[in-house]
Each structure stands twice: as structure tokens, then as C-alpha cells.
Amino acid sequence: MVNTQLFEERITKEGIKALRQIIGLSPPQIFSPGIDVDGEFISSPNYSIPLKSKRKNFGWLNIKIEWLETPKECINYYRISLNLSDKPKDIKVISDEHFKEVLDFPLSSISTYSPSLILKITIHEETWQATECEESIAYDRAIIFHREDESRFSISASDTIADLLEFTKSEQRIKEIIENCRCRLTIE
To answer: Is 35 helix (H, G, I), strand (E, B) or coil?
Structure first.
């Protein structure tokens, strides 16, 4: 058996704190500077989720991804980063006399189709190790947003293209994404 070096990437404590801000909210849309639609999922290098209730705007939850690989065996893994900001990531915001601030084009938006509140968030970890390899990986692969009406949506590392996040509301696709993962953390 080969002595294995583990490469790990986890969502930071600051990222977890940022995720907590969406609990109890119902974002109607998720924004991105550009998307690619492929069947049951939508890909983008980053997403920005507005944090607002009916009466107050709390800013934005920005989510981005970085593709990494181990130094010897070039095993792919990912770093998902989250932060709170007063502006969406990579989307221009302009001032308007009637609406204060408006998102400017080009931009893409994804409707989440549900007024239901987000009750909890689960973070799912993927690991990989082979007996003949000197390197192994463990990283946070997917963030699942669970709603009051029992619907879910997911933002996860793409299976096919490095440096892209996948968004999906498809229950079947969410099951496929987390099939080989373990739930590492639940935020309520």
C-alpha cells in the first residue's frame, strides 16, 4: 500500500457564516454574469444571490469556484468560496434616480420559481482515494438549499468543466450529484 498525502478543501468559517444569512429568506432569482444551459443544469463561474426580505435588502451572497489539482498525479478537486458583499460578483450596478441601484447588462438570471423560505442548507463532501496513488482528495462538492415546501436546489462543482458551478432544481440531478458524497454539515 502506498503512503497517501491528502489534499483537502472546505468552505471556510467565513463562508459558512455567509451561508447562514440566507436561512429564512426566499430568493426569487439567482444572478450571474453569464450562464450555459445544458438540460437539467445551468453552469456559471459564479453566482450571486440577493439577500432581501420584503422590507430590507441585506446585500449579496456571492459564490465562486476554483479548480485545483494535486501536484504529482494531477487529481482534480475544487474550492467553493462564499462571501457577503454589497454588490453582486462580476455584474455592473448602476445608480438610478427611481430605483437607487439597478443591475446592468450583460447579466443572466435564474428564477428559483418558489416563494418558499429556505429552512436549511447541507454541504456535501466528495472524497477520492486509490490504493496505487500517492495522493487523495476531499473537498466540499455541493451546497443544497432545502425549502419549506420540501423543494431543493443545488449549487455544486461541475462534473465536466473546471472552474464552473452547476445550478439545478432537478431532484434527479441533485441525487446524482450527491450520490457519492457524504453530508458533512447541516446549517439550520
So the answer is: coil
**pLDDT digit string, tens, across residues 5-41:** 999 999 999 999 999 999 999 888 888 777 677 777 7
Backbone angles phi, psi at 122, to 5 degrees: -120, 140
The beta strands (E) that lie in the chain are given as 5-9, 29-32, 36-38, 41-44, 46-52, 57-69, 76-85, 93-96, 100-103, 108-111, 118-128, 135-147, 152-157, 165-168, 181-187
How many Å separate Cα 83 from the centre of its chain? 11
In 10 A of CB 60, how many CB atoms?
Answer: 24
103: pLDDT strictly greater than 60: no
Measured distance CA(172)–CA(167) in Å, rounded: 13
b/e map 144-155, b = 16+ CB within 10 Å: bbbbeeeebbbb
Strand partners, 83: 62
Q: Is residue 85 scored above 90 in pLDDT?
A: no
Q: Where is mean pLDDT largest: 38-52, 92-106, 149-163?
A: 149-163
pLDDT of residue 96: 62
Identity of residue 160? T
Any idea where the domains of the chain sit in the sequence? 5-187
Report in angstroms the alpha-carbon separations of 30 from 17, 56, 147, 153: 19, 17, 15, 11
